[in-house]
Amino acid sequence: MFHAEVLRDNPSKPPPTFHPQLPLHVWTGPHPIHSSLLDTIVLYEGKCFTGRKLELCSDCDNFQDRGFLNRVNSVRVESGAFVCFDHPDFKGQQYILEHGEYPDFQRWNAHNDHMGSCRPIRMVGLCLCLKETPGPGKYSAG
């Protein structure tokens, strides 16, 4: 049997509900906390943050729809983390870009400067901690 402790960043919210019949007590409370309003990525056509730029704070399925070419040579992730794709409509090779600066496409391990879409990575505002206690098959929160 597993026992779980939920660590929440806002203790005033109601506690989540659990399904005791599931082996790892899956959280089924309110939707996870989503901070996309705070997530920001800036894409640049030129290396070292030069040329035209496109600033995004949410999903963008096609950079060309925003008047930006599918050529990205440098990126600045100002907050949050993003998954970027080398083709529109969230297709093709994926790149995870975390907070920081990427002065050329090789810094995010791309083989070329093609990038066509990206979206913020949704973060969940809780933590589930399990630890084993003495005795066979016994677990407790920790």
From TrEMBL:
Beta/gamma crystallin 'Greek key' domain segment(s): 39-79, 80-122
Pfam families tied to this protein: Crystall
PROSITE patterns linked to this entry: CRYSTALLIN_BETA_GAMMA (PS50915)
Keywords: Repeat
Superkingdom of source: Eukaryota
Subunit record text: Monomer.
Protein family (similarity comment): Belongs to the beta/gamma-crystallin family.
Protein name: Beta/gamma crystallin 'Greek key' domain-containing protein
UniProt organism field: Goodea atripinnis
Organism placement in taxonomy: Eukaryota, Metazoa, Chordata, Craniata, Vertebrata
